[in-house]
Amino acid sequence: MVIKFSEKLMKKFGSIVLDTIDSLYKKKTVNWRLDWRNKRLVTNIQIWLKEQIANPSEDMLLLARKFEKYSTHDRKIMSILRWVNKNVKYKRDKDVWEIEEKWQTAEETLQKKTGDCEDGAVLIVVLARLNNIPHTQIKLTAGSVIGGGHCWVEYRASFDGVTRIMDWCYWFSPSPTHKRKPALQDTRYLDRWFRVNDVRGYGKFKYCMKK
User: What is the CATH number for 81?
Assistant: First the structure.
């Protein structure tokens, strides 16, 4: 079930609504192997993202400023998504790094202008947070989709509080936020392994009914 809030309510109490929804998820530590050259090394993705957002390069800040002109978070995230799709070329880790898996930092992706699914997704999250989109609205997400494993961004819209998928590579869509279907209704995305941003990791919804 998807619960939508009216635009009138969101304009008046949007930050309270989003904070409340965010608090209803159990906290989760998300550790992941980001570089298969050392398969024993796992990284806390929350801290990894936090360090990138806290220490952006001049090039990253210059790019981030391109999106400041958009008046709403919903417009900013769509502009960021379109920019990444247009300017980053999809390339497999094996072709670039000669290993099966290597998560690039946002800075590496910006400089190379190439990357696979998680690399573009990380860049989107970093640019969004540098543009003051609250952590309650954006999550780096990994999971199973039709065809295998994948990484994308989930964005909780300002105008109705419903999450939409921002996928820069597999199933990119330029449609504005209000014309995108809710994430839970997109059957191409089968399962979530984890959701995380620079503030917290997300476990299950605290009040899910047991089957």
Answer: 3.10.620
